[in-house]
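Homework help board

Subject: predicted structure for assignment chain

Our instructor gave us this sequence and asked us to write out the predicted structure in token form, then describe one feature. I got the tokens but I'm not sure how to describe them. Can anyone check?
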Amino acid sequence: MHHDLLETDQIRCYTQDGQPVDCSGTGQDASVGKVHQPMRDQRFSPKNSVVEDRLTGAIWTRDANPDGFPQTWHEALATVAKMRDRRTHGYGDWQLPSRDLLFSLISHQYINPAIGKNHPFENIFNGYYWTRDSCCRLPDQAWYVHLGGGRVHRGMKQGSYLLWPVCPGSEVQERNKHKYEDRFLIDGDGVYDRETGLTWSRNANPVGRRLNWRDALSAVKPLTGPGLEIDPEWRLPNIRELESLVALDAHTPALPAGHPFIDIQEGYWSSTTSVYEPRYAWTFYTRDGQVGVGFKPHEEFFLWPVRG
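My token output:
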């Protein structure tokens, strides 16, 4: 996984009630330096009717709604199969995008569409787009991504949503290919993730209770204990970092088989504000792996510290 995909492009910080605020000392997403942002700003290379993503190696249709109407999941699969047979635009490996790949396009600074600035795409619909991935717990449902705001949810396969064909690149690796002993290294109360370079608290509920967003940002700072006090840089993870833990072949929790984490809760705050409505922050649900939002003042979600 590209480490720059773990960054968001969020550049502003917000109060609990959604007002802009100086980022210094907040612990919010935008207060963390965006060291990979120059690459993200130059990632797309248009080539006539297609666009190459230099970051992932994927080739997307420049028209983000080439069929012009919603389709069921199975109809969408049939559509990209025809594109493969016809070698549309000169390519023979058209597919529905994986959840990983479609989520990699999402901006957390821009909405309607939630795609980074200066993108070259056309005809983006600010609604839900199918991925090729089924929901493990509910196999009659598949994952889709909202390109207006960035939510990642699941819906019945007989429902009708849009499709954006892609020829996948080789740089975004399929998830769930790493065995437990290959991916995670336990170090005291921390767990190092070799896939992302992040270190997570092994205890996924160190505070022991639900918090509102402001308290979650504050509570992570004084955490101490064996393993936690070695490195003071624990923080609230951004939404991409949380989402990187998802294993689409698992549920309850949707984490890689054999993971070493304990006391996993159903939902977690991220440090990333929803610019669609800044009184809300992005949240991660472990049962299936949804990416949604929570109302910042409500004590509804838990804290899972990360560093690195």
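Reply (TA_rk): Your tokens look well-formed. For the description, you could write something like this. Residues 3-33+175-307 form one domain. That's the kind of observation they're looking for.
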